[in-house]
Amino acid sequence: MRALTVAPGSADSLEVTDVDDPSAGEGELLVDAIAVGVCGTDKEIAAGDYGWAPPGSERLVIGHESLGRVRTAPADSDFHPGDVVVGVVRRPDPVPCGACEHGQFDMCRNGRYTERGIKELDGFASEQWTVPTKYAVKLDPSLDRVGMLMEPTSVVAKAWDQVERVGARAWFDPRTVLVTGAGPIGLLAALLGVQRGLDVHVLDQVAEGPKPDLVSALGATYHCTSVEEVTRQHVPDIVIEATGVPAVVFDSLNGTAPYGIVCLTGVSPVGRSLSIDGGAINRELVLENDAVIGSVNANREHFGMAADALAAADSDWLERLISRRVPLADFSTAFLAQDDDVKVVVELGAP
Ligand code: BGC
Predict the structure, then answer these.
(1) Which of 90, 203, 218, 266 is the most buried (most CB within 10 A)?
(2) Which pairs with CB-CB distance under 8 Å and at least 24 residues apart come from 100-103?
(3) Strand pairing category for 60-61 and 120-121
(4) Is residue 7 domain-shared with residue 68, that is, in the same domain?
């Protein structure tokens, strides 16, 4: 079968290659792939800046934003042929650390976790894949065109869960959230904010294209200005930071209401420096009981939350997030940013 593979560490090594057909082991599903989403991490892997091949292999099957349809399922499982499913990305470390031992592999303490399509495990950008039932999540059948949004939604479901857990350390009644960045993570974070009944503001640097309309279609407010200006006007209780841009990150820390929570989800490039007033930031965090949380990845529970959030969302809005669908043979165009891109997906089979 065909798969999209890469030699991690080598720029421009991404290509469609023939790999062995998978066969489902005990307790595993065999899945016909529908599509994979492409995100910043995939682009970093394709650029040779991130990613690890499975031990003993030079190449890694890329793709962690999966979507497929079950071909075969173990008779004693909750899955059936025809079910629409996605695979969980991360697997616990082999030790395992305390967090992994408790099913919280998204919080792995020793860094020896593995991730499908990213770190030492083949991903989902192949015409078929297998997955143990305990790492598969069933989706509402109506999501068979947009379900590759599940993985990024699981990442924001975790971020929201973290914010609510930190907020619950004292009386907490948030009203206003600022989401910085209107890419897929920012837009999905805004969706989950609206679903919570919050007054949602989204900040991005583009004034045109699909993003302003996608935000207003949610009932949220789009801003194309500075973090300082929007935080001065709206004083958010919560910021979900989804740009990873250092200046935006630090301006967000200064802009919350007292007892504010900033959740950082953007993975930034390293090696750029920025001049900041560390004393002012520390003073603000201390004097206002503010909290800053980093959040990455998602465990099974977060995938469950994401499945519920997507099932409750407007399916036309979700469809509009997918700005381009590219056949596998044209994969390279999916990795080149185009104006008006939101989420680009590579198609691997019929829905
Ligand atoms: C993925 C996460 C993963 C992270 C780091 C992100 O793009 O969505 O699941 O943990 O990259 O590898």
Answers:
(1) 203
(2) 103/299, 103/300, 103/301
(3) unpaired
(4) yes
CA distance 137 to 308: 11
For atom 7 of ligand 1, the residue with the nearest CA is 41
pTM above 0.85, yes or no: yes
Nearest CA to ligand 1 atom 1: 297
- Which residue of 44, 50, 155 sits with most ligand 1 atoms within 8 Å of its CB, as the best mutation to test the pocket? 155
Q: What average pLDDT does the structure give for the chain?
A: 97
Residues 6+ apart with CB under 8 A from 226: 251
Quick one: CA dihedral 164, 169, 173, 174, positive or negative? negative
Has residue 149 got a pLDDT over 90? yes
**Pair (275, 334) in one structural domain:** no
> Has residue 269 got a pLDDT over 90?
no
Backbone angles phi, psi at 283, to 5 degrees: -60, -45
Radius of gyration over alpha carbons of the chain, in Å? Answer: 20
The residue whose CA has the least distance to atom 9 of ligand 1 is 297
Same domain, 288 and 159: yes
The answer to whether position 334 is within a domain reads yes
Tell me, yes or no, whether 127 lies in a domain: yes
Residue 299: inside a domain: no
Question: How many domains are contained in the chain?
Answer: 2
**What 8-state DSSP symbol labels residue 188?**
H
Q: Which CATH number belongs to the domain containing residue 35 in this structure?
A: 3.90.180.10
Confidence of residue 209 (pLDDT cuts 50, 70, 90): very high
Tens-place pLDDT, residues 156-173: 999 999 999 999 999 999
CATH number, domain of 198, equals: 3.40.50.720
Q: Which two tokens stand for residue 78?
A: 């909750």
| CA nearest neighbour of 180 among 127, 126, 227, 118 | 227
Host domain of residue 263: 154-294
Residue-wise pLDDT for 6-43, tens only, equals 999 999 999 999 999 999 999 999 999 999 999 999 99
Q: Are residues 96 and 183 in the same domain?
A: no
